[in-house]
Each structure stands twice: as C-alpha cells, then as structure tokens.
C-alpha cells in the first residue's frame, strides 16, 4: 500500500510530518493531506520542537536518535525526516505510529 507521508528509502524510510507545537501532550493525530500530523508538548523555539519530534519518533519506532535526520523544514511546521533503519517499512511505520494494519 502506498503512503504519501511515508515512503521507502534504501535502508530506511522518509516521513513527511506536520507538527503542532505547544500541545498538552505529545501524540499522533493522524494523516492530514500528505503528511502525518503530530502534536508536540514542546515550545517552537530554539529547536525544542525539533528535538521533541526526534525523541518521540526514536522512542516510538525503536531506533536511535542518531538514525533520524531532519532534512527539510527546520523552522517550518511541515518537515521531512529520513530514518536510517533497514528494519523499517512504510507499512511497519504506519502500524507503529497509527496503530493500523496494512
């Protein structure tokens, strides 16, 4: 199944996310257009929201933080991340983040 917000890369996946900072708690909201919407319990200043996003994805996907690279959107609410983990597939990421089976 093709997921526009999560695409395969050699040795990992690419995620398109839209974040909402300053939320009461960090959680995945769902898919919005072509991005995965994630609420973050962090301020959007001095990179704190980016750090919270990487920490959340690292914990949820069981990959080291060093395997996650923020490639686009450092100061934007829309971001592209590349996760280097051969075990991850778009369908597997959807199960971990959204709880939905392929």
From TrEMBL:
Matches recorded under SMART domains: DUF167
An annotated GO cellular component: cytoplasm
Cited Pfam families: DUF167 (PF02594)
InterPro entries noted in UniProt: DUF167 (IPR003746), YggU-like_sf (IPR036591)
Similarity field: Belongs to the UPF0235 family.
Protein's name in the database: UPF0235 protein H3H39_13895
Organism: Rugamonas apoptosis
